[in-house]
Amino acid sequence: MELLKPYLEANKQRFLDELLEVLRIPSVSANPHHKADMERAATFFKEKLIAAGAENVEICPTGGHPVVYGEKIIDKKLPTVLVYGHYDVQPPDPLELWESPPFEPVIKKTAIHPEGAIFARGSADDKGQVYMYVKAFEAMMQNGGVPCNIKFMIEGEEEIGSVHLGDFCKSNVDKLACDVILISDTSIVANDVPSITTGLRGLAYVEVEVTGANRDLHSGVYGGAVANPINVLAQMIADLHDKKRKITIPHFYDDVKVISKKERKEMGKAPFDLAAYKTALDIDKVHGEKGYTTSERVSIRPTLDVNGIWGGYTGEGAKTVLPSKAYAKISMRLVPNQSDEKIFKLFEAHFQSLAPASVKVKVTPHHGGMPAVTPTDTPEYAAAHQAMEATFGKAPIPKREGGSIPIVALFEKVLGSKSVLMGFGLDSDALHSPNEHYGLFNYYKGIETIPYYFKYYAALKKSNT
Length: 465
Prior knowledge:
Layout lengths: L3 H7 L1 H12 L11 H18 L2 E6 L6 E6 L7 E7 L19 E3 L8 E3 L7 H15 L7 E7 L9 H7 L1 H4 L3 E4 L11 E6 L1 E10 L5 E2 H4 L6 H10 L22 H7 L6 H8 L12 H4 L5 E9 L9 E2 L2 E10 L5 H15 L5 E10 L2 E2 L5 H14 L4 E5 L5 H9 L3 E3 L15 E3 H24 L2
Parallel strand pairs: 3-6, 3-7, 7-17, 8-16
Antiparallel strand pairs: 1-2, 2-6, 4-5, 5-18, 8-15, 9-13, 9-14, 10-12, 11-13
């Protein structure tokens, strides 16, 4: 491991330049106009894996965007780690809120990142975090090789629900066979407080459409006599929560796993500065389900939020129109043991029941995913703990995150392997928002830490056999 340090230091600028190169590719999976950009990003990762020393590298077609696969098998008797990441990114909208163009990365110093941070869409989610593995792999290959078998699977549809990854995994079970899946698409508590994610919420995402009259109407002629779909939709959305901010969908909480007071107390030991949290978001007061702390609301409790709402006239000036239709996109974050398929059905039935007879309602399910909890008493987790302690100089704490990585549950079901979520980003990195960024400290710390994971995991598995 000592041989890696001078290599990493000597190649820091190149590692950064290569990341900036792929960040310039607008690989937005949700937009069909970026199909060619998706292919460019896949090709980039293929070429860099080959240059780093991976074998059998290929761009694998799916029903949608392709998967990049590569491997380094040194001994089939040794444990195998499957590295997962994604090269697709969220749409950059709204563009006017970016301080610099989303696909023209710039490095700026911030209060949290005094050494500098890369501002660009995908810098933290997930190009920066998955590219750490490519560079860590290169460093190991250039300095004695890898201590265990390593496989790479980098997909292009995570931001749209990994819609074709399940079929790909089912068709390639032998190719993807592994002892553990290593993922860095999560965060740490702070740059001086390392942590390992032990739980993720699931997701159920829907689009709703409320229709009134068969065409847009003059609001003076028809207003007050015909239902306004925007007004109706707004009221229906408001009725999805009660005064205690609990979700009103019948049976929504039936399967929610209750966390014991002891577990909640242990979770509460994780550092959290409420004042700093509010300051960073420029809010005067937090908001959420009564009876739970802010940290609990975004980790162990399910939620329902409107992600977008539109209808009627939104251009400049005035147009006195009574719209025919109104729309909203709504996401529900789920916790163990909730099922996205069940929640889809419960939501649709309840939302239909909230509609007055003066409108018609259509609910369209989009992507979903199951919640996941990873064990902390395994060699796989112990290797991550030891690796982070080696490079951060202090033991990481376990924590649950509010985000969703639906493929974690899918991997366990199809491949029979658990995942380790060893991310290096920060919650303040503006994921999915304008001005997304990733600290240089975090990028380089990830590259430094990852080789330790493979070293410790190989040793732990050997001692357990």
